[in-house]
Queue: 3 jobs
Job 1
Amino acid sequence: MTKEERSAYNKAYRAANLDKITAQQRQYYRAHRSQKLATDKAWAKANAEYVRHHKRRWEQNNPGKIQAIRNRYNATPQAKSSRRRYAQGEKRRLSVARYMASEKGKVTKANAQARRKSRLSAAQSPGMTLAQWQEICTAFNHACAYCLEVKPLTRDHVIPICRGGLDQYDNIVPACSTCNSSKSGSILAVWYGRRFAA
């Protein structure tokens, strides 16, 4: 049998037994998963330039598929869990801290504070006294209204100022800086379900 004949035979056999071959491959992968992953990782590391070139070429030829793959992955519980871990992790905190210390970060913060001040002035919010703030903290046992942990507290507007909420007694709860920053301008029910979903 010549090389061409062998190739044609293999293609025909594979086409006729695709389900059987796929099942065998899956079974083998499940039985040797860690070994296969280690082998693939070592090969990719040894052939990094080839992998980068091949990946770049595939991405250029399949722009629609990339977005579809990302959308499918982003909808999985694994992706949501990964994003939640990153949002609550040290890596993100350091990344945000670096950005806020940069010139661009300082400008962003100044602009945000100016917009907030403008909205408060336009809404003519009555504000809140120190005694009222202490009363609210006492009512919540000096714990965060969201995660219930006892930490240094900040004032959080239940209905965010950017969504028309007022800076007044009945729209303010104590929140730790982590929850307050995470909630930001989100609607409470949507943010709470996203952050504390089981």
Job 2
Amino acid sequence: MRAICFGIWSLVLAGHPAFAQSEVVPEAAAIFLRGYPATLIAFSNNHLLFRNGAKVEFDDGKKKDFNALLTDATPLNQLAQPYPMGPDSYQPPEYNNDPGRFRCAAFFRAMYGNSPSEVESHLVTIPWMPRSTHKTVRITSVNGVDRALAAVSAELDQLPEPEKNSSQLPPEHLTGDRLPVPIN
């Protein structure tokens, strides 16, 4: 009986995306899984699987020019242009080289919300440099962004006054009103 229960339970777990081991995850997809562990649960059949049940096609296999990448990017396309690193990273970029500009709307909608009200439901208010500015900022709580920004705010608030004033970001530039992708 114990062997039968173990066998049935093994089949149940094997069918769950988090336990499926039959598919090799491409390194580019693994980058997303490592980068968004609170949101993504797995990669299966060329799709990123989200904790909320959404799934987004990772690679549509299409060759795209720059304009098509701007309007119809997949998550894989988002990684098409790496950010420059090292001593040459401050050089002017080549024409149409703009890392981070290709965005998969379906990916961001699945992550942040598929409507303004869904996006709004994830916004929280945090104090921005409370000892210095007494202002607040609205920002998403998805993936712990709010906690990370609160930590930056606290660290900046500890700087001596001359340094603090030169590094202070105005809160109006950190509003939650700007969505990463237009919601139609």
Job 3
Amino acid sequence: MLYKNHKKTAILLLSTLSISIQAAHAGSSFSSSGQVNYTINNITNQNNPGSTDGLEIAALFDLDANQSYSSSSGDGSFTITPDQLNSVSLSPSAGSNFIQTFQVYGDVNNGTVETYQLALIDLNLANNSSSDIYDIEISLSYDLSSETLGDSGQSGVSIDYYTDNDATSDFTGSELIETFSEPLSLNNASLNSTDTLNFILSPGSTHAIFSEIVIDGSLTAVPIPTAFWLFGSALAALPALRKNQAIRKNIPGSAV
């Protein structure tokens, strides 16, 4: 009876170890995002206090299809959110803001994923008045995050921002974060910051702030054959089987 119990234990060990090791192989994935927040902090009409009748503000999100690409093989897949144009008119008043998040996710269990995506997130201002002069303050906040998981993965998120006006050419910045995965390990990174811009918008003039977010990622996953795990499980169970044989020899009346 004792021998039979140990035999059952060894068989259970073999099957459980095989299943658990196979389950540990979860492929590779990445999830990276960039968020931009434009906030109107102050608008002052120097010639007509309190009036913003001639001021227009619009925000735009768009993907640059000419500089973006993606490819996959096997069961590799990726998701881009959002994947279409978004244009919004903002109220020309303090406190108005535009928040846009751009995210790319990739996943593979047997194959590859390669992607490079460029998103444009802009804020455009136009003074349509013939006499009003606006003193404007705008803040740009951004939040970058990236994580990778699995056998072989890499992802990065970067932001570059600038204006189209020589008078505010010093309003510029660039940041980058990258993550790399190792087998069965998770790596993540994040970064956030805020910059502030002050400028004068004279009659009939325009001003634009440009933010470019790039997200790239690459994944590779190749499952190890089931036979390999079974072989490894058998090797791991050998000590238990040998112990069972020794116990069996000490049981009176048992056959060797």
